[in-house]
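User: Second chain of the day. Same drill as before.
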Amino acid sequence: MGPKGGGDTIRIGLFATLRGDEPEGAEALVEFFRELERMPGIAQGFHLYAYPVCNPRGLATTPETNAAGPDLVGEFWRGSRQPEAYYLEREMGVHGFQGVITLHAVEDTDRFLAKSRGSILDTALALPALDATRGFAPTVDRLAPGGDGLLPTAFLTATDELRPVPFELNIGIPRRLRAIFRVRGTVAALKSILDSYRTFIAHRQDI
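Assistant: Same format as last time:
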């Protein structure tokens, strides 16, 4: 829970390790919350809910999938019988997140990727997040959200059942980078998203 801001508290869900062979997001979330302990003002006005290991059985036993087999990324809001999908859907419904950020590991690239559910959010949130990673992914020479086909096309909030309708960003963490740069770049992207969303909300309220 960040320090109280000037308006209503913004609830954001942070999800990682939906696939058992992608621990990179969990590592980055741990470091992100360590930084928030040192500098809580980063989260001013936010209540952040972290789910660093969404697929514990998959992480422990089976690459990519959960222990029962299906890829969790495509199991949400389809009446899935997978317990991970069921309980995470409940978390999203109960807490009523205004935003959801999902961290994925991506192959075949050494730069960070980002994809939202719309061009407005790409401009307002994804582009600044990618810009924040420049110092950690030195080969980044083009800032264009979309994921380049390497990010999952499914979103956790692709349903009419959630109110309010949250924004959602998929962030791709490049495995080609050294671990320290993966973590620091992801932390920088998350900090940028919080800051950009404050600005986005303030502008929207002024309109």
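The domain at 10-206 is CATH 3.40.630.10 (Aminopeptidase).

User: Great, on to the next one.
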